[in-house]
Amino acid sequence: MKKILVIDDESWLREMIRLALEQQGYEVLEAADSVEGAAKAREALPDLILCDVNMGRADAGYTTLAKLREDAATAAIPFILMTGMADSAGMRQAMELGADDYLPKPFKVEELYAALNARLRKAQTVRQDAERKLSTLRTQISMMMPHEMRTPLNGIISNAELLATSAATLGTEVIAEMGEEISQSGQRLERLIENFLFCARLEIVATDPESVVALRSAKMLQPAAVVQAAAAAQAELVGRVNDLVLELADMPLPMAEEYFKKIVSELVQNAFKFSEAGSPVRVTLRTVGAEVEFSVQDRGRGISVEHIRRVDAYVQFERKMKDEQGLGLGLAIVKKLAELHGGRLIITSTKEAGTTVTVKLPKL
What we know:
single chain, 364 residues, alpha/beta, Rossmann fold, Helix Hairpins, Heat Shock Protein 90, 3 domains, 5-stranded parallel sheet, 5-stranded mixed sheet
C-alpha cells in the first residue's frame, strides 16, 4: 500500500484528500504545518508528499520542500506543491527547489489522481534504475574481489608452503618473520572481506525506507569514549600512539555505536596510513550549531580535488603510485553512513600538506 503524506493547514481539505485517496487504496498521513510535515516525512518516509504552499506564511511549502531535499533520506520522495495562487514565478521557484509537480487549487479529484499516478510511476522507474545500478555494483564486486584477494592470499600461501616443505632447514628467526607475514596478510584479507560485506549491507539498507527509519532510531549518549577507544586502537596498531591528538566533547549522537565506531576506525586508519610517523593526527568531536562534527586531520600527502569528487565504492586513491592494499572502501562507507543518518561527509585537502575529513550529523 502506497503511503501519501498531506501537509496543509486547512483540516477540511486534508479530510477531502484523505477520503479521495483512501478510496484508491492509499494510506494517508496528515500534517497541519511545515514543521509537523517535515518531521512526519523523516519519520514515516512516505511514497509521495502533497504540500500546500501557504501555511501561516506565504513560503511555508517552499521551506518544507527545501528542508526535505537537503536530507538524504527524504531527498528523492516525490513532492507535489498545492496552491491557490499558481503563477509562473512560483512554479519556477518550486521546480528550482526540486518539486516534482505543481497542483493549482481548486482541483478536481481526477486531476489529483492523475498527478499522483504520474509521479508514483516516475518514482517506480527511478527505483528500478537504482536496482539496476545495485545489480551492476554486485557484478563489479564479483569481478574485483578475486583480484583484490589474490595479494594477501599469495602471501599466506607462499609462506605456508615454505613452512610446510622447509621448516627443518629454516632458523627460528626466519620462521617468526614468515609467521608475521602470514598474520599480516590474514588481517588484510579479513578487513577486505569485512568492508566488502559492510558496504553491500549499506547499499541494501539505502534502498529500503523502513530500514533507514530503523537506522535513525538509534542513539549514543557518550560517543567520546567510543572515539577514544577506536582511535587509540588504530594508533597502537601502527605504533603511533604519541602522534594521536584527541579533542573530544561529549553529546548525544543519533547513531548506533557499531556504525560510529566504524566511521572513527576508517578515518583514523586512513590518516595514519597516508601520513608519516612523527606527524600529528588530530581527532575532534564537537557541537557546532545544530550539528555534531567529527573530524580527523593529518599532515600527509593529501588528496587531489579530482579524487575527492570520486569518493565512492571501489575507488582507491592513487593505487598505481602507492600500491595500497584493499578496495578503497573506507571513505565510501563513511560517506554512506553519514548520508543514511541525515548527515554529510566533507573532505578538505592540500597536496603534500594534509587532509581533514569531517562527518557532520544532526544534533539530537
